[in-house]
Amino acid sequence: MKAAYDEEEAADYADTHWLKQLIERRTRRHQFGDVSGRVLEVACGTGENFRYLPKSADLVGIDVSKPMLDRARKRADGLDRQVELEQMDAQRLSFADDSFDHVVSSLSTCTFPDPIEGLNEMGRVCKPDGQIRLLDHQEPVSGV
Ligand SMILES: C[S@@+](CC[C@H](N)C(=O)[O-])C[C@H]1O[C@@H](n2cnc3c(N)ncnc32)[C@H](O)[C@@H]1O
Fold this sequence. Notes:
Elements (H helix, E strand, L loop, with lengths): L1 H31 L5 E5 L15 E6 L2 H13 L4 E5 L12 E7 L8 H11 E10 L9
Parallel strand pairs: 1-2, 1-4, 2-3, 4-5
Bound molecules: S-adenosylmethionine.
The site of S-adenosylmethionine has 16 residues, from loops.
């Protein structure tokens, strides 16, 4: 694998980066563009998804990293959208059970020390008739 990156990927990476971004943007819009009600974004990072989440949604974003949240705040302000941001561990959400109509998260579970715990927490805070929308690049985990 390393050899493949050394020989091909390093040279091509910058050239194909715009295409990766285009695919990623389309996927984010497709996955999150129609959420509604009270919405929790878990591990929101710098707020990359904010532009794809409808402005009518009552959006709460959490992330464990303060510097990421600082950037997310700037992005939300730049987009002129209301977002409640809190520093929080996805594996121990401080919200009550059944608090959200939608729970969304992207490129996150692979970074959690215990992804199953994070997914269980998303399930706990999502209303029984709500939806969890994920965008990730690892195989589904069992035990959730
Ligand atoms: C690869 S970034 C993805 C950020 C954003 N979701 C996106 O799609 O661009 C992973 C994010 O997960 C956050 N994160 C990692 N572990 C976390 C945890 N235990 N609880 C909350 N956030 C966490 C990191 O701080 C980082 O912002």
